[in-house]
Amino acid sequence: MTTLIDRIRSGDVRSIARAATTIENRRPEAEKLLTRLFPFTGGAVTIGITGPPGAGKSTLVAQLVTTLRAENRNIGVLAVDPTSPYTGGAILGDRIRMQEHYGDPNVFIRSMASRGRLGGLASATMDLVLLLDAGGMDTIVIETVGVGQDEVDIARLADVTVLVLVPGMGDDVQAIKAGIMEIADVYVINKADLPGAGRLQSEIEAQLSLAHRTDGWVPPIVQCVASEGKGTADILTAVRSFRASCSRQDRVLENWALRLREMFRERLTERIGVTELHAAAEEVASRRRDPYSIVNEWLERH
Amino acid sequence: MTTLIDRIRSGDVRSIARAATTIENRRPEAEKLLTRLFPFTGGAVTIGITGPPGAGKSTLVAQLVTTLRAENRNIGVLAVDPTSPYTGGAILGDRIRMQEHYGDPNVFIRSMASRGRLGGLASATMDLVLLLDAGGMDTIVIETVGVGQDEVDIARLADVTVLVLVPGMGDDVQAIKAGIMEIADVYVINKADLPGAGRLQSEIEAQLSLAHRTDGWVPPIVQCVASEGKGTADILTAVRSFRASCSRQDRVLENWALRLREMFRERLTERIGVTELHAAAEEVASRRRDPYSIVNEWLERH
Fold first, then answer.
1. ipTM score over 0.90, yes or no
2. Are residues B106 and B59 in the same domain?
3. Inter-chain contact B151–A153, Cβ cutoff 8 Å?
4. Interface contact A260-B114, CB threshold 8 A
5. In a domain, A13, yes or no
6. Most buried by CB count within 10 Å: which residue of A59, A143, A237, B53?
7. Cα B132 to the chain's mean position, in Å?
8. Which of A9-23, A169-183, B23-37 has the lowest mean pLDDT?
9. Considering only CB atoms, which chain A residues are within 8 Å of B35?
């Protein structure tokens, strides 16, 4: 394993990819590997990019990568994709818009499947972040659709959370905005050349005036047209301002508390075997027992 | 408590609403109440309505309620809304499109907040379903945005899962479709008068031909224009065909297995106190310890 650790630390793409598969598939050796890699982590900055479907997140991420590459950074991209059965979880780089970066050995791209996982997605993502961090990536971009709680949790676990919105979406999207309003550190209005960009800006400002962040940070609103590369440098400036000005340590601690709890939850769940679980389900479905007393019995036993 | 149980069972809206708040806020008496109500459940049919933002789910639900009311059914509507801070979790009926049903004592409407919950959303929703079931609702409609894993889980926990799509959405939406393809029992093409409805139909058919359901059910695709009430009766027919033709018992058992596991997870998490959690987070953030060994220590202790 020492050789593997060394190879990962030297940034060897093939070793990192193999380790990522081990981690994603939750193979037994994954935990040992991560334990060994952990001391070499903490150097990377993670940027969580979230927003509703159709906001142009993938295009924006591709442009951010271009900008960061011009600064000669090593970059990891994790796309958390709710499409397991079709894109496949283990395919290295399957996003059309990222194509220009595939040949670049300093950009590590990976799509993660989120379907069929029943929780643990945030944990698995953050394990991959640790791997890329140990592998020498300076910046790790996590792209996730910002609608479900799991996905919002992933965005929140990043060092900096960027919310991407576009003008002229329906009122379901308004709801989404409200839901993730509190966790965004930077707002991006993408496709800012479309009608309605000004109105969206006012709406965000109005909602921000209602929010009260404990850390005192006032999230900036950056307009961009990602498809033309306009405004991506401003996004990075905003991200860096947040990291420079804010009490970063509080965020790091809060994130670790969330992660540790989630890891504990996951491991505990394994204590009920499949046979026992299904026998219990049958008792409940037939109304012979109620679910609450079964769970209490399990709690006493474990 | 006997009086409260009796009132709920008689369908008293005020008692049901009060009990719903108790359950949503996870007050200590909630579990006792649910344990007492449980023997009186099992009569209601739950329909999970899911789909991407902007698919017109709320309009469709309002129309379904109208159709079901014409059959003189008692109906519960649970809207799982990713917007806690602005709509508020405990407000009885805050959806504009449902307005025509607010005065109707046989329609119980409730919006649930999903933000800031950190898991447990599916559990909480299904606890409310049990309450409404015991309260004499024949049909319980659960509306949820079908993007995140939590929201997909909620839709899956219903007796019948309906996926609502609309023509002409971007390719992020394609991804969403793929992600929830396997759990949908009925497909609805809403706004079927828009250009692209035919293409969407072909796309769904193509994807369905790739899927392999173990129960042999072939999900029908229903076209509708919810805003004009067109096609909603066909949706109910499709829902009833699924219930009549399928091995319903398998689904019920699988759902209870999922729920029991989730309930167990949630309760177990409470065993690590906040102080301990934050002390551990600090050790990890400072790299004094790795998260994996901390979780293993907790597992040995609990």
1. no
2. yes
3. no
4. no
5. no
6. A143
7. 13
8. A169-183
9. 290, 292-293
Q: What is the tally of structural domains in chain A?
A: 2
Q: Which residue of A has its CA nearest to B294?
A: A260
Q: Tell me what the mean pLDDT of segment B214-240 comes to.
A: 91
| pLDDT score for A230 | 94
Token readout for B171 is 């390719």
Nearest CB partner across the interface for B85, out of A170, A182, A282 = A182
Contacts of A201 (CB under 8 A, 6+ apart): A189, A221, A223
Record: contact A294-B83, CB cut-off 8 A: no
pLDDT tens digits, one per residue of B86-117: 233 333 334 455 666 777 888 888 887 654 44
Q: CA of B177: which chain A residue's CA is closest?
A: A83
Residues within 8 A of A (CB atoms), B 102-141 only: 114-115, 117-119, 121
Cβ-defined contact of B260 to A182 (cutoff 8 Å): no
Domain match, A119 and A197 both: yes
In this structure, is residue B265 part of a structural domain? no
DSSP string, B188-239: EE-STTSTTHHHHHHHHHHHHHH---TT-----EEE-BGGGTBTHHHHHHHH
Q: Do A54 and B173 touch (CB under 8 A)?
A: yes
Q: Flag whether residue B175 sits within 8 Å of chain A, measured between CB atoms.
A: yes
Residues A216, A291, single domain; the answer is no
> Is B252 a member of any domain?
no
A292 shares a domain with A242: no
Per-residue pLDDT reduced to its tens digit, A37-47:
998 998 899 99
In angstroms, the Cα distances linking A141 to A109, A228, A230 are 9, 20, 19
Predicted model pTM: 0.66
Check whether residue A123 and residue A158 sit in a common domain: yes
Residue B236 in domain: yes
Question: What average pLDDT does this structure show over A134-154?
Answer: 81
High-pLDDT (> 70) share of chain A, %: 82
Residues B188 and B282 in one domain: no
Is the Cβ of A217 closer than 8 Å to some Cβ of chain B? no
Q: What is the DSSP string of B238-272?
A: HHHHHHHHS-HHHHHHHHHHHHHHHHHHHHHHTTS
Q: Which of B53, B258, B281 sits opposite A253 (nearest CB)?
A: B281
Shared domain check, B197 and B69: yes
Q: Tokens standing for A137?
A: 């990536």
CB contact under 8 A, A118 and B290: no
Average pLDDT, chain B: 81
Structural domain for A280, as ranges: 271-301
